[in-house]
């Protein structure tokens, strides 16, 4: 019908509007002969052609322009490489110049400090040589980092006073320095402390050392105690005083075994044993040290009495084994003999039976060692205690 024909023509017309660039195939005969339809189609093609030309100018680049841009890019990359090479050279030069500048700066600082310390020590030497000990001590205390109080400065100071009769001025300087340090709220360092004590003892000025120690004006260490202790051995008349002073130095520095030794050397055996009980860490080596340096019967007796009440290291058998297994058999046998002599209380038997750490085999080993070292009675006593236990055969 005519209506169907008109609908078909409209559908084809809408299809052509969607893609006007397609071929004109399958057109109806009526439209292919229609001048108006062909004119409209031609106008659409012209508009599409203009759009494509416009898009081509804006979206696409000619090959010649692309080649030109590539050449410009290569040129810019070459400029960048040259700039990076120059930068690396300048960076290397800057590093070299900086290192040289730092070296020159540090060298100048070292020279300045060297000159400063030279003039400082020269001034100090003049003050010391002229007997102005207060000013010299103040100069030493206020020196940067107490450089005039270190070991090297003290060696130079001793070289200044090496002339005959100059030890007393040096001692006076040390006394002034220690007093000035205390007044400034600090103690003299360890090198100054040691040199001051050496100087005082070389001049037989034990009373001055006594003053420094009792007033706690020194930096205490085990080395300080050793100096005073050794001086006491050289001067027997001052031995008791030196032992008391050394004991104080050892106590402040934590040398507990040497505190106990000083107490024993003063005859205060019971006090030494009580002190040992108060020390938290008094090792077996410390006992060895004490018995080697103070091998007294009184100390053995006191230790045995204390150990009967409270065995050391939780086991008396282990302690005796340690004694007789090392180079301290003599002391181990003395301790056992002392315990065995307390026969009224059967002390040795109670110790063996109450020892829950050491086995019967350990005590049998002790008995065998006693027999091998000519302590037959002691060995028999231990064996008799062991054989009294049911099921035990030695």
TrEMBL record:
Keyword field: Membrane, Transmembrane, Transmembrane helix
Coiled-coil region list: none
Cited InterPro entries: ARM-type_fold, Clathrin_H-chain_linker
SUPFAM superfamilies referenced in this protein's UniProt entry, alphabetically: ARM repeat
Recorded superkingdom: Eukaryota
Bilayer-crossing regions: 101-121
Name used for this protein in its record: Clathrin heavy chain linker domain containing 1
Organism: Cairina moschata
């Amino acid at each position: 019908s005519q209506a169907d024909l008109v609908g078909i023509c409209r559908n084809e017309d809408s299809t052509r509007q969607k893609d006007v660039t397609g071929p004109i195939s399958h057109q109806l005969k009526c439209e292919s002969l229609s001048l108006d339809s062909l004119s409209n189609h031609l106008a659409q093609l012209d508009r599409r052609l203009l759009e494509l030309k416009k898009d081509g100018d804006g979206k696409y680049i000619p090959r010649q322009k692309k080649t030109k841009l590539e050449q410009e890019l290569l040129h810019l990359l070459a400029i960048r490489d040259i700039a990076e090479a120059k930068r690396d050279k300048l960076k290397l030069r800057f590093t070299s110049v900086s290192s040289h500048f730092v070296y020159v700066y540090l060298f100048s600082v070292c020279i300045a400090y060297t000159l400063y310390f030279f003039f400082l020590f020269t001034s100090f030497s003049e003050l010391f040589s002229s007997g102005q000990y207060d000013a010299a001590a103040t100069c030493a205390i206020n020196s940067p980092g107490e450089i005039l109080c270190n070991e090297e400065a003290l060696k130079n100071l001793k070289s200044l006073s090496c002339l005959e009769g100059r030890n007393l001025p040096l001692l006076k300087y040390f006394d002034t320095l220690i007093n000035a340090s205390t007044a400034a709220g600090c103690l003299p360092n360890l090198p100054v402390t040691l040199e001051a004590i050496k100087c005082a003892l070389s001049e037989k000025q034990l009373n001055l050392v006594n003053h420094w120690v009792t007033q706690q004006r020194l930096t205490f260490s085990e080395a300080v105690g050793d100096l005073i202790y050794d001086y006491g051995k050289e001067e027997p008349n001052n031995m008791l005083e030196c032992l008391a002073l050394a004991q104080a130095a050892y106590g402040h520095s934590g040398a507990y075994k040497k505190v106990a030794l000083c107490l024993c050397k003063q005859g205060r055996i019971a006090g030494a044993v009580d002190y040992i009980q108060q020390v938290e860490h008094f090792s077996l080596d410390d006992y060895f040290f004490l018995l080697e340096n103070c091998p007294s019967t009184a100390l053995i007796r006191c230790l045995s009495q204390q150990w009967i009440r409270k065995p050391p290291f939780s086991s008396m058998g282990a302690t005796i084994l340690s004694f007789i297994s090392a180079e301290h058999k003599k002391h181990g046998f003395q301790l056992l003999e002392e315990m065995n002599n307390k026969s009224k209380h059967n002390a040795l038997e109670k110790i063996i039976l109450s020892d829950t750490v050491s086995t019967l085999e350990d005590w049998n080993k002790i008995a065998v060692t006693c027999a091998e070292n000519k302590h037959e009675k002691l060995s028999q006593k231990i064996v008799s205690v062991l054989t009294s236990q049911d099921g035990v055969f030695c």
